[in-house]
Each structure stands twice: as structure tokens, then as C-alpha cells.
Amino acid sequence: MKKYALILAAGKGTRMRTELPKCAFPILKKPMIEYIIENIEKSVIDETIVVVGHKKEVMEDILKDRVKYAVQEEQLGTGHAVSSAASLLENEEGITFILPGDMPLMEYPVMDKIISSHLEMGNDLTVVTMLMDYPKGYGRIIRDEYGVVNGIVEELDCNESQKLIKEVNSSVYVVDNKALFETIKKIRRNERKGEYYLTDIVSLMHQTHKVNTFLVRDPQITMGVNDLYGVGIAEKYLRDTINKGHMLGGVSIVNPETVTIGHNVIIEPGAWIYPNTTLMGNTIIKAGAVIGPNTEVLNSTIESYAEIRHSIVLDSIVGERTTVGPFAHLRRNAIIGKDNRIGNFVEVKASTTGDHTKAAHLIYIGDAEVGSNVNFGCGSVTVNYDGVKKHKTIIGDDVFIGCNVNLVAPIKVSDNVFIAAGSTVTQDIPKGAMAIARNKQINKEDYSKNLIKPKPKPE
Ligand code: UD1
Ligand code: CA
């Protein structure tokens, strides 16, 4: 039996109040619809059709040719969305697994379970339901006196007693194709909302077909994201799930509700993550590394026993046992060696350093190749930009750079060089030299009284 998935993702998502169509909106930086497609690709489904409409090019750009598309030109409701896939599905034997595109948390094992239950029970229609303490916003499941489901009533159309029903429609269905497309034609437009409700297939099928429900145990996985508050709730659920996985894998996370870790981040057991830390993209944190508090790491590798505190690290590599921060910024290809110290208010961009190099306070290192055992004095700067072009600084091993030194690039500082504090260096420095490039000091005897009046001393 061929198994199709039909995902309803044509809606604008008015309640989101965002520019992006709802199903394209990111949760932990990944579009909602991608979660669904990734899981469907792992499930027993053979073929997937996504109903697109509002800003369909955005949706198609995300999913490309991973799925087939049906276009719903005008969004006249979930029932109408299904009928826009009729030309692709109505003549096919098989079953269709219908999912809303705003339900990112259901994983494929649950999908497979729902489908096999549908087949084992011999249902024509299975409605996936959940129990909600606060069912507001969801369609309520209506049952007859024998407990058999015979309808779904949307919140807007509920009377007071129906509003109290806690079993709600998840908007996930498994249905026989032929029965679906026969029934969908019979749906009448809801007068209050002016839409064709897919939920009406239940009342239309329950007398002529075998209609059943499948109750999911964890209502969180079937939550529909309708607004930015819903995005927050889904994100919290994912954050907890991801953090739990890392903690069970041997990573210490302190105050985990403040720590956000992306899907592709790899953390070795024995690493520590402190509060208010975000690790995203293709980041790798090796054993023994300590990250945070208050740190952001994106697409970077942090080697064993390195420490990053109160800092930002983007597209960079931090070597073993190196300490970064507080308040440092490594960005775009900062490749820092082992046992370095990158301290307060230090920025490193597109540069490499050897081992045991220190840049402890108030330093900018840009477009530089720096050796081992280099000491950057407080306030030293690689002057890499002449207003038009960026230029390179090369610094050898065992170099001492005094405080407030400007290295005007392009420039080469060889091994074993000592540069006096306050120098503005514009020429290459040969191996073993000491460079001093500043005006000689003049002391004018007895002159300061012309410039500052001594303050009267208190009696
Ligand atoms: C829907 C269900 C409700 C259920 C809830 C679960 C209906 C009438 N109501 O309500 O019973 O409890 O989901 O989350 O089905 N869409 C289209 N085209 C349209 C309208 C919607 O493709 O014309 C898509 C949307 O993009 C969305 C999905 O269908 O992904 C659900 O639509 P939404 O407006 O969120 O329905 P709810 O009001 O949440
Ligand atoms: Ca919804």
C-alpha cells in the first residue's frame, strides 16, 4: 500500500505577525517545515506533497526538490488546502498522512506508529488527538454516547460545554485516498469563518466509514505553532531535548534552561557549559573545554581544556588549554594555537597564532600571522587597513611587543624582536633587533606651572 504525506503549509500565519510565512519561520534557526520533512524522510512514507500558497517561493526555496508541490492560490481553509492536491492524489490507491506545516515537534517513530495503527485497525480515517489542560485554540473532539468520535468543532463554533472538552484535534490524520477525495468535495464553507474546514471530514465520514482516533501521549509533540509565543514554547521544548541528550552523554550544563545548543553542535563528554551560553552551527567542543558563562560560539572548534568566558567566537578555532575572555571577540578565521591567552577586550580577525602567545588586554589583531611565544602589550594594534585595502602583518617567534605599539601593515617582524612601548612601526624589523619608533622625550625644567595651577590645599 502506497503511503503519501500531505503537508498543509499554504497559510500566511496571520497570528505570527511576521513577514516570513509561518511554516518557514525558524525554530532554533531551522525552518519549521524542515523539521517535518526531515522526519518524514526517515519514516515509512513513500512520497511527500506540500501544499504551498502564501509566499510559495520562500517555501520552495527551503525544500527544493525534496518534495512535490500542490499550489493553493487562495487560502480558503484546511479542507480547501487538501483539495488543491486532488490532481496529484485522488486517483492513487493508498493512504495519505495529513500533517499541518506548523507542527515541528513530532518525530518519525511516532509518525510510523500512527500509520501502522491505522493499517492494523483497518480504519478509513484516523484522527490523531491529544489531551490538553488548556485546549484553547484547538478543535474539540466530539464523541457520541458510545464514545465513538463523530465530529470536530472548532473553538470559534464551540458552545460552552464543548469548550470544556480537553481532547483536541492535532490536525494530523491518516486517511484512505479515495475516501478522502470523495468526502472533501462534500465539505461546505463554514459560515462564521468563510473557510472549508478539513475537520468536517469526521462528521461526513463517521456513518459510512470506519473512523477512529489515535491519542498521542505527550501533547507537546503535537503542538501547533500559531504565534511567536508558540515559537518560544517549541524552542524551549527542543532546547530541553537537545540539552538533555548532551547531559546524558557526559556534558555538564549549568542552569541548562539558559543554554541554547543548535542541532549540529558536537560536544565531547567532559566539557562544561556555563549559563547564558549559545552554541550554534557546526561547532565542536572538545573534552575538558569550559564554555561560558555569557558566551556565543558559532561554527567554531574549541579544543580540549580551552576556556571561553563572556566572549564571542565566530568561525574560528581555539587551541588546547587556551583561555579566551572575559570580553574577547574572535571572528572570521581566528585560528589560535595552544596555551594562548586572549584576554579582555581583545579582537582577533583572520589571523593565526602559534603556541604560548599572549594578548591579554585591549588589543586588535587582524590579518596577521603570529608566531609562538609572542607577547602583545596592552593597547597594541595591527594597523591592517589603509582606508582602501587590508594588509598583512607577519610576526615571528619570541617577540615582545610593548604597550600601545602600532604595527602598520604590510609589515614583517622577525624572530626574537623587542619593540619599545609606544612605537609606531612602519618598517620590517630584522631578527634579534630592538625597535623603537617614537619621539625622544624632552623635559622642560620648571615649566609645568604655566600649564597647571596647583589646587589650594584644604586647611
Ligand atoms: C487547525 C484545526 C484544528 C486543530 C489545529 C491543531 C482546522 C479547521 N482546524 O486549526 O482543529 O486543533 O489545527 O493545530 O483544520 N493551511 C493551508 N491553507 C489554508 C489554511 C491553512 O495550507 O487555507 C495550513 C496552514 O499553513 C497551517 C495548517 O494548515 O500549517 C493549519 O492551519 P491553521 O490556520 O494553523 O489551523 P488552526 O487554526 O491551528
Ligand atoms: Ca495551527
UniProtKB/TrEMBL annotation:
Domain Mannose-1-phosphate guanyltransferase C-terminal positions: 263-353
Binding positions for UDP-N-acetyl-alpha-D-glucosamine per the UniProt entry: 8-11, 22, 72, 77-78, 139, 154, 169, 226, 331, 349, 364, 375
EC number: 2.7.7.23, 2.3.1.157
Record note on cofactor: Binds 1 Mg(2+) ion per subunit.
Record Pfam families: GMPPB_C, Hexapep, NTP_transferase
Pathway where this protein functions: Nucleotide-sugar biosynthesis; UDP-N-acetyl-alpha-D-glucosamine biosynthesis; UDP-N-acetyl-alpha-D-glucosamine from N-acetyl-alpha-D-glucosamine 1-phosphate: step 1/1; Bacterial outer membrane biogenesis; LPS lipid A biosynthesis; Nucleotide-sugar biosynthesis; UDP-N-acetyl-alpha-D-glucosamine biosynthesis; N-acetyl-alpha-D-glucosamine 1-phosphate from alpha-D-glucosamine 6-phosphate (route II): step 2/2
Active site: H361 (proton acceptor)
Region feature Pyrophosphorylase, mapped onto this chain: 1-228
Magnesium found in the keyword field: yes
Region feature (Linker): 229-249
GO biological process, alphabetically ordered: cell morphogenesis; cell wall organization; lipid A biosynthetic process; peptidoglycan biosynthetic process; regulation of cell shape; UDP-N-acetylglucosamine biosynthetic process
Segments forming domain Nucleotidyl transferase: 5-214
Subcellular location: Cytoplasm
The reaction(s) this protein catalyses: alpha-D-glucosamine 1-phosphate + acetyl-CoA = N-acetyl-alpha-D-glucosamine 1-phosphate + CoA + H(+); N-acetyl-alpha-D-glucosamine 1-phosphate + UTP + H(+) = UDP-N-acetyl-alpha-D-glucosamine + diphosphate
InterPro entries referenced in this protein's UniProt entry, alphabetically: Bifunctional_GlmU, GlmU-like, GlmU_C_LbH, GMPPB_C, Hexapep, NTP_transferase_dom, Nucleotide-diphossugar_trans, Trimer_LpxA-like_sf
UniProt-annotated binding residues for Mg(2+): D102, N226
Cofactors: Mg(2+)
Gene Ontology CC: cytoplasm; membrane
Region (N-acetyltransferase): 250-459
Gene Ontology MF, one: magnesium ion binding
Family designation: In the C-terminal section; belongs to the transferase hexapeptide repeat family. In the N-terminal section; belongs to the N-acetylglucosamine-1-phosphate uridyltransferase family.
Its job: Catalyzes the last two sequential reactions in the de novo biosynthetic pathway for UDP-N-acetylglucosamine (UDP-GlcNAc). The C-terminal domain catalyzes the transfer of acetyl group from acetyl coenzyme A to glucosamine-1-phosphate (GlcN-1-P) to produce N-acetylglucosamine-1-phosphate (GlcNAc-1-P), which is converted into UDP-GlcNAc by the transfer of uridine 5-monophosphate (from uridine 5-triphosphate), a reaction catalyzed by the N-terminal domain.
Binding partners and assembly: Homotrimer.
Protein name: Bifunctional protein GlmU
The organism of origin for this protein: Peloplasma aerotolerans
Higher taxonomy: Bacteria, Bacillati, Mycoplasmatota, Mollicutes, Acholeplasmatales
Annotated gene: glmU
